[in-house]
Amino acid sequence: MTVVRNGVWVRGLRAYWLLPVIAAAGLALTLADRESGLVVWYETHEELEVSRDRIAALNTRVETLKSEINALERDPFALERAIREELELARPGEIVVRFAPPSMSD
């Protein structure tokens, strides 16, 4: 609908205000609803980031364990040392020195 005001042609905006109001109301309802797609998507996205970080840490741990396995399979001294450390044993005449990790008060 076109209207003339003060000698200027002006379009009537009666029907055009309805679309932004409906969109804003839908967005407000979606944000207010805890079970809506946006809230669930955001929480899932956060969980995905945590999971990706955990996967990266676990992949690093896997690589470390693989290198330890290779060392234990190839080097008999490494195997003996690992066994003695696990069982807390020492050879006759050997002195074992253990260093404690630094405490929080130091």
What's the arrangement of secondary structure elements?
Elements: E1 2-5, E2 8-11, H1 18-32, H2 37-74, H3 76-87
Antiparallel strand pairs: 1-2
Helix pairs in contact: 2-3
Question: TL;DR?
Answer:
This protein has 106 residues and is mainly alpha-helical.
Q: What is the typical, i.e. mean, pLDDT? A: 81
Helix content: 55-70%
Please list the strands of the largest sheet in the order they lie side by side.
1-2
Cα(first) to Cα(last) distance is 81 Å
Biggest sheet details: 2 strands, antiparallel
Cα Rg = 34 Å
Order of helices and strands: EEHHH
Count the helices. How many?
A: 3
Residue share in β-strands: 5-15%
Tally of structural domains: 1
Q: Unreliable segments (pLDDT under 50, ≥5 consecutive)?
A: none
Strand count: 2
Which structural class matches the secondary elements? mainly alpha
For this structure, the quaternary state is single chain
Shape: rod-shaped
Q: How would you describe this structure in keywords?
A:
106 residues; mainly alpha; two-stranded antiparallel ribbon; 3 helices
Walkthrough of the structure:
The protein has 106 residues and is mostly helical. The protein has one domain. The protein is built from three helices and two strands. The chain has a two-stranded antiparallel ribbon. Helix 2 (37-74) crosses helix 3. The chain is rod-shaped and about 110 Å long. The protein starts with a strand and ends in a 19-residue tail after the last helix. The mean pLDDT is 81.
